Amino acid sequence: MTSVELGIEDLAKYPFLEEAGKYIKARDLSLEDIAQPDFNMVIERARKRVLQAIRNREVSNEIGTPEIELLSFPLALMLIKATNLDHLISRYSYSEAVRAEKFLESEREELVVQIFRNTLKIDVTPIETNTCYPVFNYKIPIMDYLKRAISFHELEWKLVNRSVDQGYVYLRSHELIRLIRQEVENMIRERLKILTVSKLPDSLKKTIQDISIRSPAPNLSYRVRITPDKYPPCVATALSMLNKRENLPHYGRFLFTTYLVNIGSSVEEILALYSGSPDFNERITKYQIEHIAGLRGGRVKYNCPSCRTLVTHSFCFKTKECDDIQNPLQFGRKIVPNVRKQVNKKWTKKQLKH
Amino acid sequence: MDEKTTKALKKKFKEYYFKHIEQIDTPTHISEREFGYMTFDSIMIRHLSFQNPVDLRTKILKEVPHSVYYSTSLYNEPSRPMQEKGWKGSDLVFDIDADTLSSPCRKNHDKWICRSCGTQKIGIKPTKCPKCKETRIHEINISCSICLNAAKNEVFKLLNILTDDFGIQRNKIDTFFSGSMGYHISIIDSTFGEANQAIRNEIVDYVSGQAYIPESLGVSRQSSYENLIDRLPSETEHGWRGRIARYLKNSQFKEKSSDLKEVLAELYQKTGYRKFRFVIESAAKKSGATIDPSVTTDIHRILRLPGTLHGKTGLLKKRCTDLESFSPLDDAVALGREPMKIFVDNSPQFTLMGEQFGPFKSEHVELPTMAAVYLLGQDMAKVEE
């Protein structure tokens, strides 16, 4: 496939591309230049980009003047960075990725292929579209698919529920595009992380202050002591097997221990729960719990396995209370929003005071 | 295991390795792999590395281990502790074990011993000891040609999925008899080498047909008959749609003469979404391969080294060049027929090289080395004075 020449409109749609960066660099504009009244529209669009991300988790996909749209992207990145609010980085990256996704969905095939191959290093092949069900537009190598699809938790994204043949996964356009949202998000996030903002012109300071005030509060971590009656069904099953002195399979043991370690139970508390199991050996079990808790060996605390992993190892006993959680540690999260609300309220008040 | 039995087993292994050390089937990228072995005193030695096959063979000859293992992963520094090794990638491996297939023959050749009261019986391990009601029960699995054939069928299912769906060439897939209950399937140098644990989980679910949903067949809660006829799969389709269609056509709906799509659409209309989902999930699991998920997903796993003896059976972990004709209880027998006097403590019947042995009660017997080691290794016998 021959390479597609990208016009200013294409660059405005996908400002995270290397070609867009080159175009802007060639204009040789400094921050001071952009702060001049001539660039008011660029500043206004940059401000809007950020505020749309904060309010709607989505940047609008309007292209008024392509040049303004394109130049406002790096400026928006600077505004975000200048607020010094780390949690805005994630929200903004996500919102820009959603915007790009919308454009890509209706993009011409050759440009989609070029962006995937050159920027995302995914070997996409367009295929002749079937007239009968199932209809596909593209195929990509299995590994390229899996690397991205593992972060989706809906069953339809599992490889087993995909059309797979001779090393390729067959996808419809919107599925292919959805697959790379996270990647575009990561690209923008990485760019934001390494971005350094030197002294900003005074005219931009007010915009930054405005953004800071309108920013949502970050998710603060909190700890709630979880009692056995609130355990997720998989952990409850493991506990019940131990209580009945049944032999808990290896993966059940791993789940049980990592879960308890992660909700803050002590090694001694966990050890006591194992003491009735067949073949219980206090020394070995204690060593294993300490290893999982990160107190021995590589000193790495193990995470609780995800629900998907538990399905793979036949240790998922899902009930409707599980409510589409991705990890047993999220079980019962419905009680959490109240806690979070209170924390956020305090944080926001405090933030406004300063 | 008593000292005399350990000594006798080690002697037999030593004699074997002395004559056949060249037959150890070393994996590629040897210098990037971790090696380990278990001694006859049950001590596990890990984090060894070798620059070439000669050094590895020399070590095996010197130590005469009960079992020898190699890492399925490649590392920058394989002899360092796990966190410092520097993971470079892992072979894609699968383990198929006869004891997970619930073959009906298991009741004839499995054995259990209650660790609390010492009761022992031939048969499937109970959850509780019928005598003392304790749950501390040790299980000994013996394989026969029936359950090993069932395992081989699973290997064929897996190989079809790997070649047809994953596009892996047949000659890039190594198949080995594990030396005991089943088969190891290994793919070295593939694009899947860099796959992390989460990706390997997905591969496991794919090959075993886990979490398949009717929506992938074009069925939803609101599907109409016409809609279903348009969307349901035909037997000629690739991937899981075709596999499920072929399974249903050849098993559950064998008798039906009409088109499979019509049969399935009628089934859906008659039973509703939930029951239909159950039929599809069950078809997916049955047409997938039954594998041990933890072997495929563990990227720090060590596996038995091909061409070495299994410490519990005295059988070889052996490459199957022609899987169709491979007969594990003949082709993997490595030890000879020199007679050994042993005292057996209840053993089920088993067959090696076409010859049947047992069942034995508590009795003194003289058996060819291959059969004696088979019982000694599994702690069902000890060496006589």
Describe the structure.
The complex is a heterodimer of chains A (354) and B (385). Chain A has a four-stranded antiparallel sheet with strand order 1-2-4-3. By secondary structure, chain A is mainly α. The termini of chain A are far apart. In chain A, helix 4 (40-56) crosses helix 6 and helix 6 crosses helix 10 (181-194). Chain A has 17 helices and four strands. Chain A has helices at residues 8-13, 18-27, 31-34, 40-56, 66-83, 86-105, 109-119, 142-149, 173-179, 181-194, 202-214, 233-243, 250-262, 267-274, 282-292, 307-312, 336-353; strands at 125-126, 138-141, 163-165, 168-171. Residues 334-354 of chain A have low confidence and may be disordered. The longest helix of chain A is centred in the first third of the chain and has 20 residues, at 86-105. Chain B has twelve helices and 18 strands. Chain B is α+β, with helices and mostly antiparallel strands and 385 residues long. In chain B, helix 7 (239-250) packs across helix 9 (273-287) and helix 8 (260-271) packs across helix 9 (273-287). The longest helix of chain B is centred in the middle third of the chain and has 20 residues, at 145-164. Chain B has helices at 3-20, 53-63, 106-109, 145-164, 197-208, 225-231, 239-250, 260-271, 273-287, 293-297, 328-331, 369-377; strands at 35-38, 44-48, 67-71, 73-75, 87-90, 92-97, 111-114, 120-122, 137-140, 173-177, 182-187, 302-304, 318-319, 339-347, 350-352, 355-357, 360-368, 381-383. The A-B interface holds A 132-134, 141-143, 146-147, 149-150, 155-156, 158-168, 245-247, 250-251, 278-279, 297-298, 300, 306, 308-309, 311-314 and B 81-83, 115, 127, 134-137, 164-168, 191-192, 194-195, 197-199, 201-206, 209-213, 215-216, 218, 230-231, 238-241, 284, 293-294, 297.
